[in-house]
Amino acid sequence: MLSMEIKQESMVKRIEDVVSILMEERPLFKEDLNYTEMVQHLVKLAQENLPVEEFNSMPDAELKEHCSFVMATEILSKIGADFTPEQMAIFDEAIKRK
Fold this sequence. Notes:
Elements: H1 2-25, H2 27-32, H3 35-49, H4 52-57, H5 60-77, H6 85-97
Helix pairs in contact: 1-3, 1-5
């Protein structure tokens, strides 16, 4: 059991390090995302979708890419939160044209 706890702590530490790096490299992440919530979300996703061994063998660059994608998606999900119905209609129409 202790071994599993150590593996989980290792997962959290790796994700914390990657999120810190991404927030420094991309100020928008730092401005719009909560560090603690993002780490918790990424850890949960990793635990639900990857065996610990697969996570541990993932290269840092690949982990960073995955984390960056999730973080960018989180920012995009907030875009329409404050839109008026008219603004949302304009946004929807612009997306449909792409």
